[in-house]
Design goal:
The structure holds 2 protein chains of 2 kinds.
Chain A: H1 7-30, H2 47-54, H3 56-88, H4 92-107, H5 110-123, H6 130-154, H7 158-166, H8 171-200, H9 203-208, H10 216-226, H11 231-262
Helix pairs in contact in A: 1-11, 2-11, 3-6, 3-8, 3-10, 4-6, 6-8, 7-8
Chain B: H1 9-30, H2 41-46, H3 53-85, H4 88-99, H5 106-117, H6 122-129, H7 141-164, H8 169-177, H9 182-211, H10 214-220, H11 227-238, H12 241-276
The chains are: A mainly alpha, B mainly alpha.
């Protein structure tokens, strides 16, 4: 059944490819542009990279983004994994209720989730800032963790847990030494998903921030409206490189794992 | 294992406070006037047919999102199809390359288009160097559509691709054995079987396109505001939270309705898919 690709489909793929990558290539090339203006090429330079690291606004936004991503991923992994286990063993009605609650942030538009949380924080008189962004990120991250852990629970061998109990383990011990190792791939996927979702978010952070606290996305948005500084080009080049490296590592690892399983 | 049920308690509490209560608050605010009294004014202001300013914005959001979705489908389907035909090894690498841009911060990607499309941007500098007329697309509806298509195209390609690679090869062989040529097999077998992927592709592009305010703000300028821009404005500029909440309620209802329609369409198709096989 395998046929050779027609020249037309090769050309087509290349065009789509150019469309997807041209803007990214432009950002990366211009990060090495010595001239500040975007229209002209002033020769090769690394000065925007140097200025990036001395730009305190961008650096503090980077720290905010990373710490919120790490903390919100960690908290949502704990609450989300526990929730998945609890939901899995719940009666049908509780199960349906909690599952629909978890679905709300995933189905709603980000802008609606963002302003609904803004209303909540204002209603509870919590000052907008770092804490409110963090709480908001935990809120939209938990459902992704539940979603990643749930399929692993369905594959669980019920007898393993019973065996552990019969051999004298306490339920808690059996939980941590039998169930957790079995569902750990789902937990890891959930953690990675939560981390990237948090880093990538703009809209929800935008509505729940205050007091001058910025994530990278908020910083980029403010700059893009005012006129972008060339440091942002350097930042995007670095971010692209980091994301690409991470994705390649994840892909290679998972394809290696698959090969092992096939053997 | 009943004792594990208690593990869902922290989430139940968290969801009550941070998921359910905020939604109730949106509904409460949407029925509140400036003094906190109950009113329907926020909704009547939006659905004012003698002064359809806001309805026009809603219509523009739906219209631009629909055009962007159609373009994504037209560009994305052939791409997904080509990808699905490739041998496994190349397919893995290529589909990775198609997902990669999606992992780049979407504000940066949208900003990159500003660099390309501006009056003195790269495309226009290139065109004028060749002595060709320049392309003034920045701050038009065309630019918003382009931004949408660029940002959401992978969301169209991936679900279709995922459905296409799962199509049972023997079905295609059966079609060929029964005398169906390439285009008949495509129209009668492959396309109908790929409808679930098309549907989820459509919802994954249409939903974010209709609610965006970033793309319209950065590429569309002030005069092409969408419903997302209107909502953002009420909360960030004018401070009219009641009206902003009412528009969010309208947006929620709109999205729920759209999903219901999609769901029904998908269910119907599952039925006909069964007959086909």
């Amino acid at each position: 059944m395998k046929k050779k690709l027609s020249p037309l489909s090769i050309i087509y793929s290349c065009l789509i490819f150019v469309f997807l990558y041209a803007p990214i290539a432009v950002l990366i090339i211009y990060s090495f542009n010595a001239s500040k203006s975007r229209g002209t090429w002033g020769g090769f330079s690394l000065k925007w990279y140097a200025e990036l690291f001395s730009n305190s606004d961008i650096m503090s936004a980077l720290v905010t983004t990373l710490t919120i991503a790490v903390i919100s991923a960690a908290v949502s992994v704990v609450i989300g994994t526990a929730a998945a286990v609890g939901i899995y063993y719940s009666k049908r009605r509780t199960k349906a209720l909690l599952t629909s609650a978890a679905n709300i942030p995933m189905l709603n538009a980000d802008i609606v989730t963002g302003i609904s949380l803004l209303l909540l924080f204002t209603f509870l008189k919590i000052d907008l800032g770092y804490i409110t962004i963090l709480l908001a990120h935990i809120t939209f991250n938990i459902p992704y963790v539940i979603l990643s852990v749930m399929p692993k629970l369905r594959q669980l061998d019920k007898n393993a847990y019973e065996a552990a109990i019969d051999l004298g383990a306490t339920p808690l011990r059996a939980f941590f030494s039998v169930i957790i190792p079995e569902i750990s791939p789902g937990i890891v996927t959930g953690a990675i998903l939560a981390f990237t979702m948090s880093i990538d978010d703009f809209v929800i952070s935008f509505f729940t921030t205050g007091g001058g606290v910025s994530t990278l996305s908020i910083e980029i948005y403010t700059m893009a409206k005012r006129g972008i500084k060339p440091e942002i080009n350097a930042l995007s080049a670095i971010m692209f490189l980091v994301v690409m490296t991470l994705l390649i590592i994840v892909n290679v690892r998972s394809s290696n794992a698959e090969k092992k399983r096939e053997q | 294992m009943k004792k594990f049920r208690i593990a869902a308690l922290p989430f139940a509490v968290y969801a009550g406070i941070f998921i359910v209560a905020p939604i109730i608050l949106i509904f409460m605010y949407s029925f509140q006037g400036a003094g906190g009294e109950f009113t329907l004014e926020n909704f009547t202001r939006f659905f004012n047919f003698s002064d359809p300013t806001y309805l026009k914005v809603l219509w523009r959001s739906i219209y631009l999102a629909a055009i962007s979705t159609v373009i994504c489908l037209l560009l994305g389907y052939p791409m997904a199809y080509i990808l699905s035909k490739l041998p496994n090894r190349i397919r893995g690498i290529l589909s990775f390359l198609f997902v990669l841009p999606m992992w780049m911060n979407f504000l940066l990607r949208t900003y990159a288009w500003m660099t390309l499309l501006e009056r003195t941007g790269i495309i226009n500098t290139f065109l004028s160097n060749l002595g060709l007329p320049t392309w003034d697309i920045m701050y038009t509806q065309g630019a918003v559509i382009l931004g949408n298509v660029y940002n959401f195209l992978p969301f169209m390609i991936l679900p279709i691709y995922n459905v296409l690679i799962k199509i049972d090869k023997s079905v295609l062989e059966a079609s060929a054995d029964l005398g169906g040529n390439g285009s008949v097999t495509f129209r009668k077998v492959i396309f109908p079987l790929s409808i679930p992927g098309v549907i989820s592709g459509i919802s994954m592009t249409f939903m974010p396109a209709v609610t965006t305010f970033v793309i319209s703000k950065l590429l569309g300028g002030g005069q092409n505001a969408l419903i997302g821009d209107l909502i953002e404005n009420q909360f960030k500029v004018t401070g009219d939270w009641g009206f902003g909440s009412a528009m969010s309620v309208i947006l929620m209802v709109l999205i729920l309705a759209a999903m219901q329609i999609m769901q029904r369409y998908e269910d119907e198709n599952d039925g006909s898919g069964g007959v086909l096989l």
